[in-house]
Amino acid sequence: MNPSPPGDEGALWYDDEAGPMVRAYTITGGRTRPDSDSDVDLIAVMVPAVGTAPDDNLDEEHLALLDLCRDAPLTVAELASEADLALGVVRVLLGDLLRDGHLRAIRPVPPAELPDVGLLKDVIDGLRAL
Q1: Could you give the angle at the alpha carbon of 44 between the alpha carbons of 65 and 102, nearest 5°?
Q2: Domain 25-109 belongs to what architecture?
Q3: pTM of the full predicted structure?
Q4: Are 77 and 87 in contact (CB under 8 A)?
Q5: For the segment 5-22, what is each residue's pLDDT rounded down to a tens digit?
Q6: Which of 39, 50, 51, 89 lies at 20 to 30 Å from 4 by C-alpha?
């Protein structure tokens, strides 16, 4: 039988097809931000750290994220989509994995460090002139 919210006896607040419902704060232990100092950017690419094996004390969600990263490097946003978890939850879990050395983050090059497009065009034009 489906439980109903307090004060609303008999009304269904989810259906049988929804499956088990787990609140985000139960997965993250009530945390809303990663414990580690590293900022988990949405476009940071997560890759497994070399020479690390999963701990026995990692929970199901941590292991699922590790497995996804082992298949192919993925951004934080892609991991959230693939794992079917809320983005905030994934950021907290990835922070744990980064802190413990299971993953490493490859961050995109900041725009200020990218080469000047005009300079690149000049180089290409110079090469074509040869």
Answers
A1: 40
A2: Orthogonal Bundle (1.10)
A3: 0.63
A4: yes
A5: 555 555 555 556 655 556
A6: 89
